[in-house]
Amino acid sequence: MHAVGPHLQQLEQENIELRNHVARQTKHNLDQALDGAVPNWREVNQHPSWLAWLQERDVFSREKRQRLLDDAVAKGDANRVIAIFNGFLAEAAWQQGAATQQRARQAATGKPIYTRDQIAEMARRRRKGLINDADWARWEYELIAAGREGRVAGALDPETGLVRSVGG
């Protein structure tokens, strides 16, 4: 052991240096691939909505998106990392488009369009006693009318069980 000990120590140090070099090179290659495919990825990577989106579960794998991203980064799988960023950007663009459509419909009809979050917030306020019976009755009437008129964003279609578009 005395004879090979220093040699083993040197090999261990070289192994550590080699692993560090490979990790740096993998990160460099990943960054380059992202720069080419998702030019604004660094800004997206800091955005609160991206960070919140990563905490949600992927619709197909049911894994948290953050875990999927971490795994792809650890493996240096640029294609998967790019796909995850593009998935977020596509969903964000769709939501932005839906919000724009919602504002346009609201402007055209003059009637408000409600989101599921707004409805949940009203229910929460009612449970806390912040909305009296008369105001709650008016809200229920308005909400039923909004549902009948297709003015509830993200409402489920009773026939298909799928989320339907506003006005659809």
Structure overview:
By secondary structure, this protein is mainly alpha-helical. It folds into 2 domains: 1-108, no CATH class; 111-168, no CATH class. 69% of the residues lie in helices and 2% in strands. Strands 1-2 form a two-stranded parallel sheet. The chain is elongated. The mean pLDDT is 84.
What is the element layout, followed by pairings?
Blueprint: H1 5-37, H2 41-46, H3 48-54, H4 65-74, H5 78-109, E1 114-115, H6 116-127, H7 133-148, E2 152-153
Parallel strand pairs: 1-2
Helix pairs in contact: 1-5, 4-5
Salient structural properties:
single chain, 168 residues, mainly alpha, 2 domains, two-stranded parallel ribbon, 2 strands, elongated
Kindly summarize this structure in a few lines.
The protein has 168 residues and is mainly alpha-helical.
| End-to-end Cα distance | 78 Å
Poorly predicted parts? none
Secondary structure class reads mainly alpha
Shape: elongated
Radius of gyration: 26 Å
The main pleated sheet reads as: 2 strands, parallel
The count of strands amounts to 2
Pattern of helices and strands:
HHHHHEHHE
Number of domains: 2
Helix content: 55-70%
Integer average pLDDT? 84
The number of helical segments is 7
Oligomeric status: single chain
Q: What is the strand content?
A: under 5%
Strand order of the largest sheet: 1-2
